[in-house]
Automatic annotation (TrEMBL):
The keyword Oxidoreductase applies. InterPro entries: Met_Sox_Rdtase_MsrB, Met_Sox_Rdtase_MsrB_dom, Mss4-like_sf. It catalyses: L-methionyl-[protein] + [thioredoxin]-disulfide + H2O = L-methionyl-(R)-S-oxide-[protein] + [thioredoxin]-dithiol. GO terms for molecular function: peptide-methionine (R)-S-oxide reductase activity. Residues 9-133 form the MsrB domain. Its EC number is 1.8.4.12. Pfam families: SelR. Keywords: Oxidoreductase. It is an enzyme of class 1 (oxidoreductase). The keyword Oxidoreductase applies. SUPFAM superfamilies: Mss4-like (SSF51316). This is peptide-methionine (R)-S-oxide reductase.
Amino acid sequence: MSYDIEKPDEQWRAELSPAEYTVLRQAGTEPAFRGEYTDTKTTGVYSCRACGADLFTSTEKFESHCGWPSFYDPKDTDAVELIEDRSHGMSRTEVRCARCGSHLGHVFEGEGYATPTDQRYCINSISLRLTPAES
Ligand SMILES: [Zn+2]
């Protein structure tokens, strides 16, 4: 799989903070309820912290109480890439930025949330950067 934006590992390491690098480039997970956007209700667009691609918007963000920012749909279907993830003895679907391949989080479905898709894109705050809408 190749991405529009590909950089050597050393470059990602230099451009991102250690915490950002761990999540975005090594598929880490930030601690629950600690991320800066967990409860954010600001209107705006969430872009990839690694490459700046627009990924999610506040319109699709909902309160899942799971401890991470949750969205029921990406901004555009092709903005994210979904990959089967069998690590940690679980079968999950990993969500990556389709432009740079950075790890964002996982998507779960059929959990019964009252959202239009019944999907929960469980995304690390540190993978995103919120640009508030101009009012
Ligand atoms: Zn990206």
